[in-house]
Structures are given as C-alpha cells and as structure tokens.
Amino acid sequence: MADITVPLEKVRLRLEAVRSSLTPTEKKLATFILHHADTVIHHTISELARVAEVSIATVTRLAQSGGYSGYAQLRVLLAKDMALIPAAASGEELKVSDEVSVICDKLVTATTQSLQDTRAMINIDALLRAAEMIAGAGRIDIYGIGGSSTVAIDLRHKLLKLGFPAAAYADNDLMMISSTALKPGDLAIGISHTGRTEPVVAALSNAGQSGAQTLALTHDPLSPLAKNSALTINYSARTTVFSSDSMTGRMSQLMIADILYTVIGYSHFERAASFAQKADTQASKRRINT
C-alpha cells in the first residue's frame, strides 16, 4: 500500500483521502462512518457491520486499508479525533431545500474546515522536499486539466515571479510533448484532485521515464498519480454533491501552492525578492490611473 501522509490520529481525514481507492463496499462503509462518526464510535464491529449493511470482514478490510491494525484501533482513534473538533466545525450536508444564505454559510464553513484540515495533515518534510525540488530544477512543467488547470496556472505565475522557469499545460498533446522533452534535472508537477486524470497521470509517468523528477498534488494518496510520482503532497477537501468541482479542494490546492511559493521565496530571499520587485514594477506600469 502506498504511504498515506495523513496522521493515524486524523481518522476522518485518512478515510476521506483513501475513499476513492476503496472497493465499492468499503467505500460505502467509509462514507457511512464519515457521515455518522459520532455514533460509530459507540458501535462494536458487529453493530457497525449491521447498521452499515456490510460484512464484519469489510469493516476489518477498511480499517486495514486506512493503515490501522483493525477496527478496535480505528474506533479508539476516531473517538479521540471527534473529541478534538467542535461539533460546529464539521458542518452540515447541503440539502436541496437549503436557501441561498444557508448554502453560502455551509460552503464557507466547509472550505474553512478543509483549509484547517489540510494544515493538520501537511507533511512538513515532504513540503520542504517539494520546495527543494522546485528551486533546484532546471525546468519546471506543471500539468493540470479542468479546475486543476487554474491551480497549475497560479503556481506557474508564482514561480515565474520568483524567477524560476515554469510552464503550465492543460492540453493533452502538449503535456505529452512537454514531458518527453524533460530530462534529468528538470521537474514535472502533476495536479489532479482525484489523481485519476489520465492525461496528467500519463504525462507525469512519461516525465519520470525521461529522467525528470516528479511531484504530485492530489487529494488521494493511493491514486495512480501518487503512485507515478516520486513525491506526493496531499490535502483535505470536504465533499459535496458537486465535489468534483468543489471550491473546498481548489482552495486547499491553492493554499499549498501559496505555501510552496512563500517557503521558496524566503529560502532564496535575495534572488526571489529581486525578481518579485521587478515583476511588481513592470505590472504597476501597466495599471490605468484615473
């Protein structure tokens, strides 16, 4: 099983992170636990299997898929996890009957909690390694499609502002051409919420075969993108009916991009500050004064 960077104590974050990689039955159980965590912590393994309508073996397999020794460890740590987070922080599921003001409140709460959860699960060592990979690369190509393409563009903008050679690609053919042209000393960054966007996975895999270093930014630590990357940074995202286009995941992606930008900037302060100042000076010349 691939490494899951989320701490064992963050049970709900671990289940959320691996959910898309589970079997259908395990996924059903994980969803049940996430939606009923406050009552699940009081269930024995047989009680949970009964109310979730799965087998006891499925409960055990899910616990092991999350990296736990068994259901007993998962339940104890889930209880501790629940005790550390105020009830209001978990938010509520969106409903079709919700008024616009309620939808606004729930989405803001979900996004805020996703950012806080992402901070809790960030692996600092992985973050520092990612910053070093970016700062030491001769060329940086970033791949992302759909909503992730906006994050790729944002990261490209930030790195260029610091003086690092970065490009962003959202076209399938251009991603393959780019990844083929990469060589040892270069870096390919793949961004995909699911970690299953085939062109992004293929480009990152191709870049690795070309000798380049590979870095992935994804919600799922067990995804094909993560498995085809030398280093993966994961983040949290609260699911909604429209989770594939959810702003919670996008904001978490953008926050990680901003953290990398800041860490790299301060680690290479003189160079970065000089480039950033020049970029800001040029930008100010193009602003229209009224």
From TrEMBL:
One Pfam family hit: HTH_6
Key words of the record: DNA-binding, Transcription, Transcription regulation
GO MF annotation list: carbohydrate derivative binding; DNA binding; DNA-binding transcription factor activity
InterPro entries the UniProt entry points to: Homeodomain-like_sf (IPR009057), HTH_RpiR (IPR000281), RpiR-like (IPR047640), RpiR-like_SIS (IPR035472), SIS_dom (IPR001347), SIS_dom_sf (IPR046348), WH-like_DNA-bd_sf (IPR036388)
HTH rpiR-type domain location: 9-85
Zinc is among the record's keywords: no
BP terms from Gene Ontology: carbohydrate derivative metabolic process
CDD domains in UniProt: SIS_RpiR
Span of domain SIS: 130-270
Protein name: MurR/RpiR family transcriptional regulator
Native source organism of the sequence: Paramixta manurensis
